């Protein structure tokens, strides 16, 4: 799914670049994670934001198709074959940060997915561009974000429509946005897998193309 970035409004209100952001590694290759009690959200939060403060960055980002160990913190990802392959991009920054519609949008669905480690408050927007219909998912929002919206609402490109949530209401994670592109919702509403098992990766790569173009500056 190739969309010219000049047609996209930056979701975070500004493009992520080398000056304001840094990539974070949540794979098994990050030895620091082995030392943390990841089931303790305050400890996990101190690690994430301590790292950003040390690097003097406003945002941390990354994770598309990353094989992540951090999902071991929640039984939500351990039912059947363990799910560890991340299908979106995360942007880690302070809670209550505003989010903006990247394109003209319609509210497809929303829900509070309130299992430990899940999305928490979630909004899914529907878009149509050059005859192609697709969806964007926003997870780990505030509960306030789910108030005063309705399925079918039109949201103009560039309009503020939600904000990042604090823990524990955001699914009990350090504050961040889970952003995901979806080509086919498969009749799901308010939710869509953001992590899959390795055996499912090829299927989900087709359903969930790389979303970095909506967040990271290409210039």
UniProtKB/TrEMBL annotation:
<dbReference type="InterPro" id="IPR011055">
    <property type="entry name" value="Dup_hybrid_motif"/>
</dbReference>
<dbReference type="Pfam" id="PF01551">
    <property type="entry name" value="Peptidase_M23"/>
</dbReference>
<feature type="domain" description="M23ase beta-sheet core">
    <location>
        <begin position="85"/>
        <end position="184"/>
    </location>
</feature>
<protein>
    <submittedName>
        <fullName>Peptidase M23</fullName>
    </submittedName>
</protein>
<dbReference type="InterPro" id="IPR016047">
    <property type="entry name" value="M23ase_b-sheet_dom"/>
</dbReference>
């Amino acid at each position: 799914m190739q969309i010219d970035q000049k047609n996209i409004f930056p979701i975070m209100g500004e493009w992520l670049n080398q000056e304001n952001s840094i990539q974070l590694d949540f794979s098994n290759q990050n030895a620091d994670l082995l030392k943390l009690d990841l089931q303790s959200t305050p400890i996990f939060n101190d690690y994430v934001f301590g790292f950003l403060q040390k690097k003097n960055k406003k945002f941390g980002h990354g994770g598309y198709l990353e094989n992540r160990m951090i999902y071991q913190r929640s039984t939500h990802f351990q039912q059947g074959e363990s799910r560890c392959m991340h299908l979106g991009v995360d942007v880690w920054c302070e809670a209550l940060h505003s989010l903006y519609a990247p394109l003209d949008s319609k509210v497809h669905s929303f829900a509070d997915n309130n299992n430990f480690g899940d999305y928490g408050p979630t909004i899914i927007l529907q878009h149509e561009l050059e005859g192609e219909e697709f969806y964007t998912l926003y997870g780990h929002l505030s509960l306030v974000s789910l108030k005063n919206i309705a399925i079918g609402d039109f949201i103009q490109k560039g309009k503020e429509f939600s904000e990042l949530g604090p823990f524990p209401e955001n699914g009990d994670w350090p504050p961040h946005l889970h952003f995901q592109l979806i080509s086919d919702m498969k009749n799901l509403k308010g939710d869509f897998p953001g992590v899959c098992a390795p055996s499912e990766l090829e299927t989900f790569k087709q359903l969930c193309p790389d979303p970095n173009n909506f967040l990271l500056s290409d210039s």
